[in-house]
Amino acid sequence: xxxxxxxxxxxxxxxxxxxxxxxxxxxxxxxxxxxxxxxxxxxxxxxxxxxxxxxxxxxxxxxxxxxxxxxxxxxxxxxxxxxxxxxxxxxxxxxxxxxxxxxxxxxxxxxxxxxxxxxxxxxxxxxxxxxxxxxxxxxxxxxxxxxxxxxxxxxxxxxxxxxxxxxxxxxxxxxxxxxxxxxxxxxxxxxxxxxxxxxxxxxxxxxxxxxxxxxxxxxxxxxxxxxxxxxxxxxxxxxxxx
Length: 242
Hints:
Elements: E1 14-17, H1 37-45, E2 50-57, E3 84-92, H2 96-108, H3 116-127, E4 133-141, H4 146-158, H5 161-164, E5 168-172, E6 175-178, E7 181-183, E8 192-197, E9 199-200, E10 203-204, E11 212-218, E12 224-230, E13 235-236, E14 239-240
Antiparallel strand pairs: 1-2, 2-3, 3-4, 4-8, 5-6, 5-11, 7-8, 9-10, 11-12, 13-14
Helix pairs in contact: 1-2, 2-3
């Protein structure tokens, strides 16, 4: 993942977007059962189907100037910085590559031999189709931003479809498809799940002729998730995966 190289002194949170990797990434050149943990994690966090929005709260910064630095460090020439960075993970869970990556990470995390039942469940999860719904999962993590992590996690846990139905949507070519159902995070490690219809009035909700898909959701005035995915990069074996 790319690091944040420049942080200014501000009084309000800022959002930095992390761009997706090229589709020529290594995980696209071999079966998912051969992916390393790093390759699977990269697909989850920085790929055509999984991206990261970095929420940076710089409201606690102070100093005499703007210094160039990596996130989480201090540049003594510019004063004392304490920017907080929250990684918001947005993933098309209904896309097969994301489910394959989750399955691979879980499998690699097992110690010793893998029970046959778990192996079968992971294979089914990685390969099943989603003919009726589009599912976007949202989760978060943070190395140093504990307050923001707790705030956003609490929002994921407590939001309901009533809170989200009018301000959460997928958009392609300006046409919005609003969320139909919301599931808070469970113990499966997949994050919160936003469920959208795959067809609207008998037509695909997302057309392959579109340039991109935008996922937008307002969790609160402070936390607004806004990420775009390039459709041309979401092709697998000639099929659009989302």
